[in-house]
Amino acid sequence: MTRPPDPPQAEPLLLEVSGLSRRFGATRALADASITVRSGEIHALAGENGSGKTTLIKVLSGVVRPDAGTLRWRGEAVRIGKPSAAQVLGISTVFQETLYSPELTVLENIWMGTDRVFRRGRSRTAERDGAREALDAIGADGVDLRAPLWTLSLAQRQLVTIARSIARPWQLLVLDEGTSALDADQRDRLFGYLESSRLQGRSTVFTSHRMDEVERLADSVTVLRLGATVAAGPKSELSARRILVAMAGRDVSAVTASRRPATNTHTDADTDTDTDTDTDTDTDAASRVALTAADVSLVPEAPPHTVQVHAGEIVGLAGLEGQGQLEYAQVLAGLRAPASGTVTVHREGQPDRRVHGFGRSGDLGIAYVPRDRKTEGLFFALSVLDNFATALLRRQQRFGVLRRREIRRRFDEYVPVVRLKVHDPGQPIGTLSGGNQQKVLLARWLATDPAVLILNDPMRGVDANTKQELYGLLRTLADGGMAVVLLSTEVLELLTLSDRIVVFHRSAVSAVLDAAASTDTDVVAAMFGHALEDQGA
Ligand SMILES: Nc1ncnc2c1ncn2[C@@H]1O[C@H](COP(=O)(O)OP(=O)(O)OP(=O)(O)O)[C@@H](O)[C@H]1O
Hints:
It contains 18 helices and 20 strands.
């Protein structure tokens, strides 16, 4: 049994976990996992998809009982047999798959299931004040306590679940992919809260597949691989590269994908605020227009804007939460109608086809990979294989029955492409780790071989090493002639992958940036609606 070296800081130990193991049937989710957390530290728990992070967190929060292992809290041996035991210690967890009731209000969700110990004697006013304070502390001041949860965006729901955890007395906050739906601004505010909590001597354990978050926040890091702790220590002694190598158990190549060289000719001139759609007359195959959004405005008061996406091009969509980029992706995918303007698909050798906002664009060769796998994407009652097959089946219905054997063949083809870790394709999708569920969603749409691939934050929950491989895959698909539209909350991801980035502010296009000539500051400035000239760019 390995025990990680104690971080050299002087702060007292808060939590010491060692020798943890847990099986689910044939799967060993944890095998000799350990973690040591000090008071007043922010601790990153890193690991590839399926390495056991969520299972370890579930043990800490009393949701899963370990088969073996010891836990010490402030030096005392403890058992956390049920969630209320974790609450009494002061361990508060924000789970990856957020548990909430869509029909209940924000306020009701925040206090739902509160242990009676904390709830007894609380007045409605005190509950309202507590909920408001928690939301304000993490910068979610715009969220209305009376709103039913289903009316909120995915990011707002994530903020509510975080508020729910910090509204209770806590000493150790555990965030499992707690920032994956947040935009850059919301993330900054949350980090500010965690940093001020650290100053008060409270600790945080967080999992994130974003190395920039680990770099920025973590005082210490624990790395899991195949359920075991394979590296641990102060962040100052663990570089990002060492963490990535420990996660993979092998040397990992640096960024495997980058946008095409800056010789790309599709610059702002093609698409900028010019509303004339006839200007793009390139006949070169690589410049063939695959999709035109002509004079599109998302809301009646926004100016119309024309964007053309070329075969072989990756166009990024950026914006702070709720600025129109999501609606725009859905308009391109034919899932909603714009306030004005038209979207047209141009396929080689076929007449142009108009994309209507009725949600039947698969027939036009458009694939849309949604963001919220829980409500928009996956069918949790079905198996991994059935979830993979849904899009293929829908398309193939027109050409006759697609044989089960053929589906399995396609599935096996895509498992290595997205690096899916699955024991048995017949197992329910809910038993896969979050990142692996995301990969099934991605594989489902890739297998339809679309002409236009529209991705809504596709790397959410996908581990850093796999992400690099998927970046390479997207670049290869684009080089093969696919037109790719990528909505992402990660500015670095957009800069790495895109040829151009369309930035949204207040439901309108605020800038179209040539990614090769732009920095993250340019993108963030445009997200806040600042004209580039104002930034001296
Ligand atoms: N209830 C369950 N039944 C069967 N297998 C399970 C169950 N819960 C977890 N597993 C398996 O345990 C392993 C570890 O999963 P876990 O969710 O802890 O990984 P993770 O590191 O959190 O991954 P991710 O980064 O994708 O969230 C995976 O192989 C997963 O499929």
